[in-house]
Amino acid sequence: MSHIVTVQEAVTAFADFMEPTDAELDAIEREMPAILADVDLIDAQIITLDRTPTELDARRIRRARRRVLAARAELANRSAAVTGVGA
After folding, report:
1. Domain of life here (predicted)?
2. Are 33 and 40 in contact (CB under 8 A)?
């Protein structure tokens, strides 16, 4: 008779201690505008993969790039203010 055994790593892969900490969740929340801006840029780029980009597509990508840069600049400025860089 063959016994069925579980693999310990597979069973505990999603144990409670593997959950993100409150600090990690806060960091994700702070970075969410930049993450969403990146997603919008990727969406705009994906739209143009299977066709020749139109002027509207080009404008959509330019706007998305500007939003990404603005979101990253805002995140960097907030991070610098919190850590006291440049003070």
Report:
1. Bacteria
2. no
The model's pTM is 0.70
Q: Where are the domains of the chain?
A: 19-84
**Amino acid at the residue 80:** A
Q: What angle do CA 8, 12, 16 make, to 5 degrees?
A: 160
**Of all helices (H) and strands (E), which one includes residue 70?**
helix 55-83
Q: What is the pLDDT of residues 29-79, one digit of tens each?
A: 999 999 999 999 999 999 999 999 999 999 999 999 999 999 999 999 988
d(CA 86, CA 82): 11
